[in-house]
Structure formats: structure tokens, C-alpha cells
Design goal:
By secondary structure, the protein is mainly alpha-helical. The chain contains seven helices and three strands. The protein has a three-stranded antiparallel sheet. A hairpin with a 5-residue loop joins strand 2 and strand 3. The chain is flat.
């Protein structure tokens, strides 16, 4: 993974180090609209402050502001960025190696689709008919 990151990724450390999600200013709202680039991935769309902020917001379902008071948000930023970079680099490399064209990949996708469809069927067709009687 580190080899792939060195090959494809350039992190803008100055931008990353300048982010403070625990400060009152500029505030999460402004960071969620910040177009500055945090990481460049060769041949792919860059990861911007707004993208990183959105993922952080999703990670802390109670809201970044509330967690910021506990001084835990800034510690999570490198980990979240690493997850974002890793995902994009793995997908990029898999496509480059044409893994999506292999029979194994196609079979795995087919099995996943079947599981999702069956789950949806159960939710729509079977689950609504189940009634719990408090007399049990």
C-alpha cells in the first residue's frame, strides 16, 4: 500500500497541518465549503478540505462541533484522510490491473447483488407481514 501511495499520492502537508476542526474559527461550515486540495491522486480527482470535512462529519454522527469540545477530532484527521486515500488508490490500481474483468471479480459482484436483492425481497415481501403478539 505504501508503494502505491508513493506512486500516486501527494499530500499537501501545509494545508493538512493548517486544519483545525476544534477551533471556533473558521468553523466546520466553512471547512465543508473549502476547496483547497489536501491530497492529489495522479489521474484522479483531488481530495479537498470539503471532502475530508464531509467524511469527518459523517464519522461523528453527533456532529463535529460536539466532539470538537472533547479534543478528539483533529486526532482523527490523518486516519480519515488515510482511509480516503487508500480506498481511491486501491480502486485505481485494481482498475489498472483490470481486476474488474476477471471471472472471480464478476462472480463476487454477482453474489453480492443476489444477497442485496434477496434482502430487499425479505424486507418488502416477508417482513411487513410479521406481527408480534404481546401474548407470547
Amino acid at each position: 500500500m505504501e508503494t502505491l501511495k508513493k506512486k500516486y499520492v501527494k499530500v499537501r502537508k501545509d494545508t493538512l497541518d493548517g486544519l483545525d476542526y476544534e477551533a471556533k474559527e473558521p468553523g466546520i461550515e466553512k471547512l465543508m465549503a473549502d476547496p483547497r486540495v489536501v491530497a492529489e491522486i495522479r489521474g484522479e480527482k483531488a481530495i479537498r478540505v470539503e471532502d475530508l470535512s464531509r467524511v469527518l462529519q459523517q464519522k461523528f454522527y453527533h456532529g463535529v462541533q460536539q466532539v470538537a469540545m472533547t479534543k478528539k477530532v483533529n486526532k482523527q484527521v490523518p486516519e480519515v484522510l488515510n482511509e480516503m486515500v487508500t480506498t481511491r488508490v486501491l480502486v485505481k490500481e485494481a482498475l489498472r490491473k483490470k481486476i474488474d474483468k476477471t471471472p472471480e471479480y464478476k462472480q463476487t459482484v454477482k453474489e453480492f447483488e443476489d444477497e442485496v436483492l434477496f434482502g430487499m425481497f425479505v424486507q418488502k415481501a416477508i417482513t411487513p407481514d410479521i406481527k408480534v403478539d404481546e401474548g407470547w
